[in-house]
Description:
Elements: H1 31-46, H2 50-71, E1 80-81, E2 94-95, E3 100-101, E4 106-107, E5 112-114, E6 124-125, E7 130-131, E8 136-138, E9 142-143, E10 148-149, E11 154-155, E12 164-166, E13 171-173
Parallel strand pairs: 1-3, 2-5, 3-6, 4-7, 5-8, 6-9, 7-10, 8-11, 10-12
Antiparallel strand pairs: 12-13
Helix pairs in contact: 1-2
Amino acid sequence: MPTVASQPPVTVSATLPDPSRERIPFARWDPGRRLLRSIRRYQHWKGRLGPVGFILSRLAVLSHRFWSVVSGADIPPNVRIGVGLLLPHPNGIVIYPDVVIGPNCLLFQQVTLGVGGAKPGCPTLGGHVDVGAGAKILGGVTIGDHARIGANAVVLSDVPPGATAVGVPARIIPPTGDTSQ
């Protein structure tokens, strides 16, 4: 019987953005990546002066509105998103405009990042943060690099790097020592 060679675990950087995560394969229906591309185009052209920048930023807004409706996500075009964000199922994702999302993060469906909770302000996600389906991260909390937020968790306090937050309200499970995944 042939043996299967074990492959080393795939590590995702919390600091080095990976733009290949946002690429849209040819002829593939991927509303999450297309919505993200419309946001990136808007942000690129919004800062340009002159009539070309104005016209192309307006076209990007139209594209953003279309993909927002198709995907069912409420992500403003001026939100600060690090490169490498994945939205595999963007349905129901709601992000407040002042939220900061680090590089290489992963947001599943029905995630809310917004104001409220005990701490005033908006959430800040570090690099390579995985947020499970239905999770709510509210208030001025900071989620550390390589942290994981469990499905349907309601996070109202800071989550240290490499830790996992689960439950309502979320309790912190300390890191296991290996923060590479």
